[in-house]
Specification:
single chain; alpha+beta; 25% helix; globular
């Protein structure tokens, strides 16, 4: 597996921060973020269960541009 690094949270020191990659082989976004607090997790569960094979992460809104860039990269490499 080769992950294509997109960016880290631009407002951090570069360590232990939210990060976005694209797995071009599996055609997936890979996102590192903060674990949700219990209130967030509970609210997410109101729309349905979260399987053991999935998780919820939080990213700061300031990373919207990073997510757009990841989408642009994915679309440009025909990941669909």
């Amino acid at each position: 597996m080769t992950l294509r690094f997109i960016a880290k949270d631009p407002n951090t020191n570069g360590e232990n921060c939210p990060t976005v990659w694209i797995d071009e082989e599996k055609q997936e976004f890979v996102i590192q973020g903060w674990n949700p607090d219990e209130d967030t997790r509970t609210e997410c569960l109101t729309t349905g269960p979260i399987p053991d094979t999935e998780g919820v992460v939080r990213l700061p809104v300031r990373m919207a541009g990073v997510l757009r860039e990841a989408c642009d990269v994915a679309e440009g490499t025909n990941l669909r």
